[in-house]
Protein: Protein BPS1, chloroplastic
Amino acid sequence: MSKPQEPHRPFFPFGNPFRAISPKGAKVSSRLSFLLATFEDSLAERLKKLTPKSENDILSFSWMELAMKLLRETHNDVKTLVEELGFPVSEWDEKWLDEYLNISVKLLDICNDFSSELSQLNQGHLILRCALHNLESTSSNQSVRAPSSLDAWNQHISSRTSRVDSCYPILDSLGESLDLPKVKNSSKGKVLMHVLYAVKVVTLFICSVFASSFSGSSEWLLPTNVPDSFRWASAFTELQKYVNMEIKKIYSSGRFTALRDVDAVNERVKKLHSMIQGNMDDCKEEFQNLIVELRREAENLTQGVDHLTKQVDEFFHIVLSGRDELLSNLRANEAVFSQGMGGLCTRQL
Structure:
């Protein structure tokens, strides 16, 4: 699969983002401080739970499902917090609106690319079922077909057309956008910028990890340095360091894929293919055990793909609904303003 061609820029090339989201002249009330602290503490706990207990958890579909669930819950928390802030869209800076709308449409594109990758993996389910049927059959004709059916899996998994190439410019621009606009004389705006910074950092990290897993290259990883001032910084830094290090280790070892569930299937397929080509008389029991293992790993792969696809779809709909709500509020505000001026005109969004 192809790798991203653009060079990586160091984070942060634009200076310390904390200065941009912690302006002077806007004091935060105790209520707003509580809302922000609640959001950040919740995010920190989720990041801690996502930290793998062992290296074997990294890029397993169960771990990736938890990662996408974290994104979904965090983005949902943003919607809830904005409502609790009582901060109407009419008071948002135009730069914030443009930033949010721009990022949201990019996230929708990324979700579509991830769904496409998962769909291609899911197509291998029928190939594995056919291979298992031939391996378990007592018919000599089907036994002869076993090697070709195993080859079909290898060909399918190695010739997949990756769509994540289009994700790299999106992720790169998302990293550049971490330098949020300064907030002047708005305590609610200050809290909003803290929250948007947090959700963008976490989104960038998880999406870059997913892109790396699908592309077969650690070059997709986009590390972010988060100031220690944030309550979730320590948990994020520990998670990012561990996960990125393990992914680089996987690819440096020459592994074909970093996806644990796919690699588990590949390992059994490779062993079975080798045994079929050799002398089966002395390894019939081992051969049968490998068939059982392949069936188990194939089922794990299928279930993992299905569950992760569901999480990606749910995240897509949360981003889409948040975008639709914002656009609806903008249209409503514009309509009210225009009517007050004596005429109704709709702003083109």
Q: What stands out?
A: Residues 5-26, 335-349 have pLDDT under 50 and may be disordered. Residues 17-253+303-340 form one domain.
